[in-house]
Amino acid sequence: xxxxxxxxxxxxxxxxxxxxxxxxxxxxxxxxxxxxxxxxxxxxxxxxxxxxxxxxxxxxxxxxxxxxxxxxxxxxxxxxxxxxxxxxxxxxxxxxxxxxxxxxxxxxxxxxxxxxxxxxxxxxxxxxxxxxxxxxxxxxxxxxxxxxxxxxxxxxxxxxxxxxxxxxxxxxxxxxxxxxxxxxxxxxxxxxxxxxxxxxxxxxxxxxxxxxxxxxxxxxxxxxxxxxxxxxxxxxxxxxxxxxxxxxxxxxxxxxxxxxxxxxxxxxxxxxxxxxxxxxxxxxxxxxxxxxxxxxxxxxxxxxxxxxxxxxxxxxxxxxxxxxxxxxxxxxxxxxxxxxxxxxxxxxxxxxxxxxxxxxxxxxxxxxxxxxxxxxxxxxxxxxxxxxxxxxxxxxxxxxxxxxxxxxxxxxxxxxxxxxxxxxxxxxxxxxxxxxxxxxxxxxxxxxxxxxxxxxxxxxxxxxxxxxxxxxxxxxxxxxxxxxxxxxxxxxxxxxxxxxxxxxxxxxxxxxxxxxxxxxxxxxxxxxxxxxxxxxxxxxxxxxxxxxxxxxxxxxxxxxxxxxxxxxxxxxxxxxxxxxxxxxxxxxxxxxxxxxxxxxxxxxxxxxxxxxxxxxxxxxxxxxxxxxxxxxxxxxxxxxxxxxxxxxxxxxxxxxxxxxxxxxxxxxxxxxxxxxxxxxxxxxxxxxxxxxxxxxxxxxxxxxxxxxxxxxxxxxxxxxxxxxxxxxxxxxxxxxxxxx
Length: 740
What we know:
This protein is an alpha+beta fold. The protein has 15 helices and 28 strands. The longest helix is centred in the C-terminal third of the chain and has 49 residues, at 558-606. Residues 731-740 have low confidence and may be disordered.
């Protein structure tokens, strides 16, 4: 039965559902983040306007709350207030013994109230949008009576507030409907404006970062659901989608932002020209222009400022006293800064570290996926020395018998057995491991062409079955690789230490060793999903690092978002470069290792010829033809893979000389039984098959390596980092020849 997973139809449907959820979540978070970013920047551009300078339009004021229009008592503290939000909560114990809090009562009340500053008074009426107004108030009352907690957040007479609201034509009342076209939030706050703006910038950066990660993750899962797992496809799609989305949103949002602030400026400037203006109104318009200029950052922001304001609207002429007042008003507006700046730096550092960790994880996952794709599937009789891939069935016999699963006594070749006991009670109840053991034994991997022995020690096993049983307060879990299971195996095919004339699958340092009960398609898609998800998460973390640092000093803007959009393809290209470079290094090292293995065998054989010649001189001096051959072999330069041209000729000459020597030795029993001759005969016999396997491995490795460095994009890296083609063996006209 085919294992269920992301390659199955149910798995792909789940991926498609998660993809849709990621994209929807990305849309809403991106919309919220950009709105917060725009509002924070618009608030920074508004000067604090004196109450007597108000005209028609949106304004930011700073004033004191007055009781002139009356107050009403708060529900719990019974103190006079013009607005209160209250909650009644109850502490209780849940089923796990944890203390929880639930809300029994909550609500809000508000009245129109009078606000005053040093220039005059105005009525603020939040009652038409009581729940829509952003109230940033400190808690003014808290009392706990047994399990009950009473809390109030009240706006009281004497409190100093900042408010963003819409003034009528006469400037007598401030209301809170109609601020959306100006990208401004309806707001009443007792907090400092710079802290308020910093919190909004931090929240915007957090939401935009998460939205970007969700967008990249949704794209990744969508491609996996469609069974598209090529990394370059993901890089191209992610670059176009994420970078394109960020770029379009950044430019669009900045255009809307400048259109809104221009509308505010034009409204105030036109009213200044149409009516008898006061010095405070002229200073207010000039302060707005000055703050717009001061809060402009980045080339795109500057370009839009020049187009929207500088070239279209002049700044009012001011006298010396008005200029001094302008300077004071502008200096009052401190740039937005995140209140918990140290926390921001810590979060940025942690985010960058996690991003790097996820980058490494993603590269490893995609690297393994690419390796699984790159290594061709072999049958048991077509194995070559080196990293190999098999799809076969597990079998056992008398020489290599199976294990027995400790839980159900089921035949298997590997198991992981765990016994857990339930300890503690209530919220402290946990499953605690009381026994954990595992075992593995060698087994055969059989296919229609034959079978190959496999030593599973050191392998990463994805078990084919999981059995769980509960008895009393104990839970027994056994994962096993059962006998007769169809598996996928990626491992090193090397000489069997117990029988050197055959290859076996075994652990080798520097190469992966994987035995899985799931198919190759599942493994490729699974590792692709892991890698793509890691890339998406790391992109989000890197963007969060950048936005947090910028939000901490108040410099975050849509222009920075546009810069981030340009950075995304650079990060993805870095991923691709690292992966392709690692691939080429792996393939080149594979060729070099195969070459070194052949050199080792050739050296071992070559070292025997002088000793064999000296030993046979005394006993077979009359065998002139043989002695001539031995002398030629002794003086023959050692064959080396550094120059493959002579390897085949030397091996062919060695075979002829060995055959002639062994045939002649039949007439010399004493010499035939000499220890050196025995060693020579054994080595020559053992290494014939070994050389054949090594040659096949070298040929296959060179073919894959040379093919990879000849195609784009590996061709670019190969030329940049000087990956040169490796020499290959060829055969023509029935005789072995080689070329460099």
